[in-house]
Write a structure and sequence with these properties.
single chain; Rossmann fold; Arc Repressor Mutant, subunit A; 42% helix
Length: 232
Amino acid sequence: MSILLIDDDNELCELLSEYLEGEGWAIESIHNGRAGLKRALEGVWEVVILDIMLPELNGLDVLRSLRRESGVPVIMLTARGEEVDRIVGLELGADDYLPKPFNPRELAARIRAILRRGEATQENAKRRSLQVGDLELDPGSRSLRIGTEDIELTGVEFDLLELMLSRAGQAISREELSLHALGRRPSAYDRSLDTHMSNLRKKLGRTPEGRERLLTIRGLGYQYLLPGGEKQ
């Protein structure tokens, strides 16, 4: 399993490389944004770990350029307290983020959650497509079509939508959604699930009748609304 680490903190890169290699992963470190983007695009990676504060090209610009050409999973590293950077990173297509400083064990857990999602792709191929109204989700190709339009989703967005479509009309808790798509329970101050859901809502748009597809259920979680607005 090859992981690309893009961070200009040499000491942190050495620490993380030693720890993650001990977990059985091959790590390559790049210390500036421009070189990191080039390496991310030319290599084959299971996960890219990307710091925001980088010389030559900052992490958000790296992610923006990377997402034009690649769907490789990305974990952003952000300065503690920089909530705006985290939200922007998720909006640009990051799969997850970790605020610095962090425990390497937590990073390893986030990587494993992403890798488990990738390992499930072969099993997904055996499952039937999910269709609700004009929306069709294909677990095999991990693709989404609304009417005649193909919609690009990140890995997390796909997993969230798959769970909600499989139980369309039912409210699903934030905890269940987070465990399913992010591999962890949401903490009190973790807004990553809500940001992913907001991005997904924008991509899905409204139904042909002008209704919202995704509903926020106050105090619980989210629901995919059945055509006509019915609830189960």
